[in-house]
Amino acid sequence: MAREPRLTVHPPEAWAVGLPSVASAMTYALDGLGPGRALTLLSKVNQKDGFDCMSCAWPDPGHRHKVEFCENGARAVTWEASPATVPTTFWAEHSLTDLLDRSEYWLGQQGRLVEPVHKPAGSDHYVPISWVDAFRLIAQKLRGLDSPDQAAFYTSGRTANETAFVYQLFVRAFGTNNLPDCSNMCHESTGTAMLATVGVGKSTIAYEDFAQADLIIVMGQNPGTNHPRMLTALEDAKRHGASIVSVNPLPEAGLRRYKNPQTVRGVVGRGTDLADQFLQIRSGGDMALLQWVSRRVLEAEDRAPGTVLDHAFLAEHTLGLDALRAHLATLDEREVVTATGLTVAEMDRLAERYLAADRVIITWAMGLTQHRKGVDTIKEIINLLLLRGNIGKPGAGASPIRGHSNVQGDRTMGIWERMPDSFLDALGAEFSFAPPRRHGLDSVQSIEAMRRGDVKVWFALGGNLVAAISDTAAAEAAMRGTDLTVQVSTKLNRSHVVTGAEALILPTLGRTDVDLQETGPQFVSVEDSVCAVHASHGPLPPVSDLLLSEISIITRLARAVLGDDGPVDWAGFERDYDTVRDAISRVVPGFADFNEQVRRPGGFVLPNGPRDSRTFPTATGKAMLTVNHLIPVECPPGRLILQTIRSHDQFNTTMYSLNDRYRGIRGGRDVVFVNPEDLADLGLADGDRVDIHSEWPDEAERRLLDYRVVAYPTSRGCAAAYFPEANVLIPLASTALGSNTPVSKAIVVRLEKRATDG
Ligand SMILES: Nc1nc2c(c(=O)[nH]1)N[C@H]1C(S)=C(S)[C@@H](COP(=O)(O)OP(=O)(O)OC[C@H]3O[C@@H](n4cnc5c(=O)[nH]c(N)nc54)[C@H](O)[C@@H]3O)O[C@H]1N2
Ligand SMILES: Nc1nc2c(c(=O)[nH]1)N[C@H]1C(S)=C(S)[C@@H](COP(=O)(O)OP(=O)(O)OC[C@H]3O[C@@H](n4cnc5c(=O)[nH]c(N)nc54)[C@H](O)[C@@H]3O)O[C@H]1N2
Ligand code: SF4
Ligand SMILES: [Mo]
């Protein structure tokens, strides 16, 4: 059992990636797996005949190196593939009451789950249960509900395409669209904004476009930690002449300086200063910044008519220019300066860069989506790109960078509480049933429904919702109010110990495991951030014979719930995943000849109207320039806007260690980063211990006790703390307009110095 170390604070590191990363990747794998397993595993990560790194959705280049992974990829695969398992005796030794006191870090350290376990109502212990009994129990509960809508079926983004397809089919055949997923807390704002404006909720670029861009603007994203190999693509782009701009309240390592471990120059040299300009924006200020730049573009056009905007493109493919022009003319300079915390000169420098570039890519992640105005901010990205025709040409486009490795594919496969009728029609026609049409619940709505008693059965295919979602106390109370919670998981987490009256844990194979079925070893497929679909073959023998694949679990559950005489051949799906892919090829657009295409080395790229042919499948058939109204993030005097971030050594709710190397934090996570000038204003100093109180107009008390203040160069008025711990501070009702994504990046907080301890 790992001893939890002591917190120490060091200066942040200037360089990202480089030698320490490769070294720690290798050490991590060797220590965790031993030489044989480590070699098999690392030689297969992201290779064309190998398996897909499950850590993030960064795409793979067409030409692969022998080492095609990063430090965090190595950590993720090692974490999953570690041979340690949770022994049967564990369940008798540890009551739920005991497990509730354990940290997320400790829970994850216990090893792979290897047998199904059941917590009967009224009991404080899980006990082993057979698979057959587990399926029977769930079926009984589901069939006993008054309505299928009293159950909700969550998905986390590691779920592969084939699994997701079979899962949503089962859920819809059962009779509900309650398919909340991690995307609701992640890129939902992106999907909402892009579907409305360009008709496709995904990236409009291909991997190769990075190397052809003149300007890449990276907004609200920390690639050095969360998409590390993106730095290689950015370095490449720079070598081809691109400028790179980073917009972020934090000076994140990697965007500033970077060493590429795959080149000799990167390993021994000074590395590259990746960002040519760093705009240290105030939290939530991006929408104002984007409007400012768009306005400068329109003013430049006014000064030299016919030379700045892409008139041919705008006339043929877009609607809304006049309204946008009229709206931006009213933009108030002082309001923009206040919202962004930037100077006019800084913003104008970005506008000049944008005007000087023929091909512009804008990438973004959680720093934009998890805000009250997240959807409108992304609509402003689209506005800015459209003005100069930066969508649907080489080296240009909108590039949301996804989080979980297959979160994008899960949506393509129908994991969404609001799938369009065209998808439901095709699904119903393929399987001769009438899928439910009423929209289902998203993640926040599911918690609300559990609180009201409207959802009684919670089933989760992966993930850790009670830790990942906002308002931890409310989420935990909601989960405890259900009749049954079921978690299909690889490792223990908080969602296994905060349960309904009855609970089940169903252990499953992961990406790294060989998946052997009656017809032989199976593979699955995933879709990355740039819509490329490729196969993933698990290379390692599973740690236990008792483990079932996710497809086995879902198909066997479907048979237990729905019987074997319906129109779906669930047993056939389990025997041979090719039959799942055949069904997908008939239901999901873009997947014709799926079985053949996915077997090509490197896979295939899905068609994408905006990218391929400037076709915009919106309601009007045109790309929409939109008018969006600024709502500033209000921060009363003496308060700070707190954002929640990932450390370098975590994957969402999974902790690999308690360190955050680039930010100089070791051995602990109970820190709050604050600008030194704000600290002085607040009468606080680096090293002080504080309680963090969240301010929201309701009765609930939301606070984090005894955090260490770290003086850190974040933008003025802003602060940062780690997710998931800081989720206790976010009110459930604080969500993004239009997407209902929890506002994880802007929480109004008050810091109160603790009286005694130091
Ligand atoms: N190692 C590792 N990799 C991961 C994950 C992980 O936990 N660990 N998680 C995966 C998942 S699911 C996701 S979604 C992605 C997340 O990838 P990121 O979005 O990079 O993750 P965050 O840590 O949330 O970082 C948000 C960034 O936005 C900045 N930011 C915050 N507020 C604002 C703002 O108002 N404006 C601007 N311009 N910037 C802002 C923050 O300072 C930070 O740099 O990473 C994926 N990859
Ligand atoms: N405050 C705050 N909250 C946030 C965020 C934030 O930035 N700030 N980010 C949000 C984002 S972007 C996301 S995506 C969500 C993430 O929310 P989730 O996806 O729910 O959480 P994860 O931590 O990724 O889930 C980890 C668990 O998945 C299980 N698991 C791992 N691999 C597999 C597998 O192959 N199969 C199965 N069945 N299970 C597996 C393991 O048991 C592990 O404990 O959190 C969101 N919450
Ligand atoms: S960039 Fe992401 S997907 Fe690629 S190896 Fe690193 S963690 Fe894995
Ligand atoms: Mo995410």
Automatic annotation (TrEMBL):
Listed GO CC annotations: membrane
All copies of domain Molybdopterin oxidoreductase, residue ranges: 112-484
GO molecular function: 4 iron, 4 sulfur cluster binding; formate dehydrogenase (NAD+) activity; molybdenum ion binding; molybdopterin cofactor binding
Boundaries of every Molybdopterin dinucleotide-binding domain copy: 640-697
Keywords tagged on the record: 4Fe-4S, Iron, Iron-sulfur, Metal-binding, Molybdenum, Oxidoreductase
Known cofactor(s): Mo-bis(molybdopterin guanine dinucleotide); [4Fe-4S] cluster
Signal peptide positions on this chain: none
NCBIfam families attached to this UniProt entry: Fdhalpha-like
Family membership: Belongs to the prokaryotic molybdopterin-containing oxidoreductase family.
PANTHER family named in the record: PROTEIN YDEP, RESPIRATORY NITRATE REDUCTASE
Protein name, entry field: Formate dehydrogenase subunit alpha
The organism of origin for this protein: Cellulomonas xylanilytica
Lineage: Bacteria, Bacillati, Actinomycetota, Actinomycetes, Micrococcales
